[in-house]
Amino acid sequence: MGTTTPPRTLAEALRARGDESLAGLLRARPDLLSPVPNDITQLATRAGTRASVVRALEHLDRFALQTAEALAVAPDPAPYDTLLALLTGDGQDDGDGRDDAGAAITAALPAALTTLREQALVWGEDTRLHLVRTARELLAPSPQHPSPTGLGPTVSEATAGMSPGRLQEILTAAGLPATHDPVSAVSALAGLFTDRTRMAELLDTAPVEALSVLDRLVWGPPYGEVTPNPAPPVQWLRDRGLLLPVSTRTVVLPREAALHLRAGRAHRVPEPVPPVIVAAAERDPQAVDRAAAGQGFMALSTVEELLKLWNDGGPAILRAGGLSVRELKRAASALDVSETVAAFWIELAYAAGLLASDGETDERYAPTPASDEWLDLPAQDRWTHLATAWLAATRTAGLIGGQDAKGRALSALGPDLDRSAAPEVRRRVLALFASLPPGTAPDPQTLLARLRWERPLRSSIPGGPTGEASDLRSRIALWTVNDAELLGITGRGALSSQARALLDEGPDAAAARLAPLIPEPLDHVLLQADLTAVAPGPLERPLADMLSVLADVESKGGATVYRFTPGSVRRALDAGQAATDLHAFLATHSRTPVPQPLSYLIDDVARRHGHLRIGAASAYVRCDDEAVLNEILADKRSATLRLRRLAPTVLASQADPGSLLEGLREMGYAPAAESAEGDVLITRAGARRTPPRTPPAPVPEGPPVPDATLLSAAVRAIRAGDTAARAVHKESPDTATAGSLPRTAPAETLATVQAAAMTGSAVWIGYVNADGAASQRVIAPVKVEGGFVTAYDHTADEVRTYPLHRITGVAELADEQTP
User: Fold this and answer.
1) Using one digit for the tens of pLDDT, what is the confidence trace for 537-591?
2) Of all helices (H) and strands (E), which one includes residue 728?
3) pLDDT given at position 349
4) DSSP sequence for 327-359
5) Considering only CA atoms, which of 752, 806, 754, 760 is closest in space to residue 780?
6) How much of the chain is helix, strand and coil, in % rounded to 5?
7) Run of H or E residues at 662
8) What is the model's pTM?
9) Residue 490: its H or E element
């Protein structure tokens, strides 16, 4: 502990620590820094608050938590040997037939105690171990919060308030000498339960049914209900104090008796060693990297397709926020994935800042300006951008389709999807992947078991969250395994080398590893006679963009198949392309001759394109060929358009121009929209973008971990404040009572600080700042002039200047306490 005198309080134990140890405490429990404590005493007080202790307990591994639980049921203080016995047992057979792994516990206990000490949950030397009071209250047994160990209260606690006559009856039935002193009676009963020989003799006389009752209570919960007239086995146990009353209908098995039946063990299954992660398969690391790279490239293609899908303005936003179920199904159908996977890609694009709300009155989702910048990046940089956003995101797509605490459905891009634990769980799962040799695919269940050992379920901590939060980490871990495979973090179940580089070295190193694994984009396609084009690999962006307008994607995979249709050719003509442009484009980018059917298709659609013109009347149709207009009027399908002839070459409609365009196209025509001046309107894809948007900020899980600079400054400030708080000043007739500011006349104040500046000594002052806040400070004056004193302030650990008229008084420090 760094001191010859054992500490009497947690504050004294913290005060004896070195600066590195204090910094380690603040790093492990960053909530203690909000705000920075004034001194060590305040730090110790804050470390003992309920919220802070619960948060610290949640971050312990399984065995460290079991060690704390054992201390909670041990005497306070507890010697090291007592704690070890509670974890290993007394070496006697408890009938359980289990190997308690005593050697492993003995080897692991010092490290667990070190962890508890570092986090200020345990203090004191090995001969007097103290669990902080709040942790003891949280982990100790009670009817409201049964102990995680399954142990009940001690005999002394369970018999509190019991009448002396009842105690005498229990002693007599148990074969103990009678005593009229309640304290002696309780001690005698507790001594019986802790004496293995006498306890074994007592249990040898117990009915078999009574032993069965004890077997049901021994490992917890230790409480049971009884009727006013209990069965003979239960009555036998009650008469001898093996079951003590908690209320008129509830009894409890005392802790000492339970420990005897458990052979001294606090836990049924101590877990000093973390579970081993079992390898499900061993794969070639290069094959893993190639598979992950391929899946990563598919991830990029899927996100690009999603952006194209919402290029002209995506789905409307629900009044409560998010996507409707129908729009999610539509996106899933367009992406050719399940709704669960579609929700993942939508949330990922949103987290990466590629999708957002456009903020219009009719609010819709649309790509952001950042999506255009992202599309211009090399493939490896686009992947690292997505992977980095996924690692940091607190929005959890796996929750979509479930319900919140109020029973409302959780929708994609909707509220209430943030879970602050998600980033930490993802990184921990990937760290466990990385702990295995390259190419090793872990078994998910053993991976989950290891994660649960490192961070036990939060519901196992009394006072911790329950319900959804109790198994949230496990659910996020399983989602992480699936999402990592979708995103190309893992390949064939094993962590890829590019993902290892992303975790260890950053995005640039990951991009460098991934670049050689991504195929170079192609500048050509293969045209076929059946009006299809085959892209044997990824295409250069200008070629892919133009081809996506001119043709429809028919199938995806290693090679993408595009199909040319009259509708797709018309789409290209609507975008401002001429037939000659399309012929030139295909001739330039095809490694095979342009098939004659495709040339005929383009010429035929181009010949008819724009033959009809649509304008605003509400809408009108004009055509130089009267026969075409006659044909339209005669077609029964045009009845819904409510057309009438205005002139031999003009038809008017009450429908809007857009509806009229779609209606005539469904009838097989190729009309073109025109402006008020009669010019053909060109429809360009991808014209809708949101205003500049920032990606959604992750919701942090508690205070952020402070950096080294902040930790160093905080430790200095705490040490300085502690020095000032503990400084002893010389008594003076003018000094007020303890805790109040010193009071001296202005002349005396000036003389004292001048003398201190000349001798280089420190003094104790009272000071009132400009806001009227009063404080006590220990300063070492350097110079006094112009009504100001410049001094080193031990409280703030810096040089400051104070107006003399704001100093209420000054007192000298006791010689032995001078800083």
Assistant:
1) 888 878 888 888 888 888 877 688 999 999 889 888 888 888 898 999 999 998 9
2) none
3) 95
4) HHHHHHHHHTS-HHHHHHHHHHHHHTTSEEE--
5) 760
6) 50, 15, 40
7) helix 657-666
8) 0.75
9) strand 490-491
User: CA-CA distance, 723 to 10, in Å (whole number)?
Assistant: 17
Contact 38, 716 (CB under 8 A): no
How many CA atoms lie within 13 Å of 171's alpha carbon, on the beta-carbon side? 23
Chain centre to alpha carbon of residue 272: 26
The conformation of residue 659, written as its DSSP 8-state character, comes to H
Pairing mode of beta strands 763-768, 774-785: antiparallel
- Which structure tokens are listed for 280? 């499900």
Phi, psi of 810 (to 5 degrees): -145, 145
* CB-based burial label for 648 (10 Å; 0-12, 13-18, 19+): exposed
| 768-799 confidence digits (pLDDT tens) | 888 888 877 888 888 888 889 988 877 666 78
Rg (CA), the chain: 39
- Answer for the pair 244, 254: CB distance below 8 angstroms, yes or no: yes
Angular region, 804: left φ>0, alpha ψ -120 to 50, beta rest? alpha
CA-CA-CA-CA torsion for 96, 102, 103, 104, nearest 10 degrees? Answer: 80
Nearest to 421 by CA among 397, 398, 396: 396
Hunting for tokens 């590019």 — which residue is that?
A: 498
Q: Are the beta carbons of 481 and 444 closer than 8 angstroms?
A: yes
Per the omega criterion (within 30 degrees of 0), is the bond before 35 cis?
A: yes
Q: Supply 87's token pair.
A: 């974890």
Alpha carbons 217 and 672: distance in angstroms, whole number: 83
Measure the N-to-C terminal CA separation of the chain; round to a whole number of Å: 23
CA dihedral 214, 215, 220, 221 (to 10 degrees): -60
> Is residue 89 packed enough to be buried (19+ CB in 10 Å), middle (13-18) or exposed (0-12)?
buried
285-309 and 339-351 helices, crossing angle to 10°? 80
Instruction: Output the DSSP codes for 506-569.
Output: -HHHHHHHHGGGSPPPBS-BEEETTTEEEESSPBPHHHHHHHHHHSEEEE-SSSEEEE--HHHH
Cβ atoms of residues 392 and 343 within 8 Å: no
* Token pair for 781: 């004056």
CA dihedral 401, 402, 408, 412 (to 10 degrees): -40
**Ordered strands of the 560-563 beta sheet:** 526-528, 532-535, 560-563, 552-555
Q: Which residues of the chain have pLDDT under 50?
A: 1-3, 94-98, 100, 459-460, 464-469, 686, 733-738, 816-819
